[in-house]
């Protein structure tokens, strides 16, 4: 990690080769205010520049009983105080705020490598927006979810509604949970399709499982994994025909990688040894484009 990067609300470690562990760490309940979500976005948008050869990321909480309890409403009230008495001008301020917040919570999606959410304990409101933007979601059996926004008088606006139909397999249940804000278990989240695995236990157990998964992903060709993530997101947002055409164009370049030869030779040798894939290049942003922390 660059010595110039100072993080106040997020812990970042590299516990295994090519794997970064990002932990939400704002006591007491990981409630997000503007500085927190700006820092969060900066970590994911600068993942390779700050942390080197990263091939998979685990996102979790450092708090034993809470993944994330949602938004910091004191921050929201402070924003409201700064708005104008004119309705149109107030709308412009709030719209800009919401768009920036949405962009920050979408940063795991922009991250070029897979992001695996390890959820445990309380996961309310914004927590669902947050994990919906991750590639893979595991939940500890003690997780309690809630799409909480209607209970505080607003519609979810940071990503849950936009992504729920893409990450869930039961539209009726998803609508029920969004309309009622009722608490639901990890098992129900699994049945909904929001998480792909329920891990018995709590924080330690789910983090251990997701780190093992991240390590497995990190052993694969980074060209193949990054390309797969990019094409999966493209497929979500386009028709089958459009995605097939785009994939052909993408792979016209990517099929020229040396990673294919290395992977095939390793498979033929039946040695089952990890292949030494070269790291992907790091894109260094000019200072004017770097997020300010």
Automatic annotation (TrEMBL):
Q: Which UniProt keywords apply?
A: Fatty acid metabolism, Isomerase, Lipid metabolism
Q: Which Gene3D superfamilies match?
A: 2-enoyl-CoA Hydratase, Chain A, domain 1, Lyase 2-enoyl-coa Hydratase, Chain A, domain 2
Q: In which pathway does it act?
A: Lipid metabolism; fatty acid beta-oxidation
What's a BP term from Gene Ontology annotated to this protein?
A: fatty acid beta-oxidation
Q: Which GO terms describe its molecular function?
A: delta(3,5)-delta(2,4)-dienoyl-CoA isomerase activity
Instruction: Say if the entry is tagged with keyword Lipoprotein.
Output: no
Pfam families xrefs: ECH_1
Q: Which family does it belong to?
A: Belongs to the enoyl-CoA hydratase/isomerase family.
This chain belongs to which protein, by name?
Enoyl-CoA hydratase
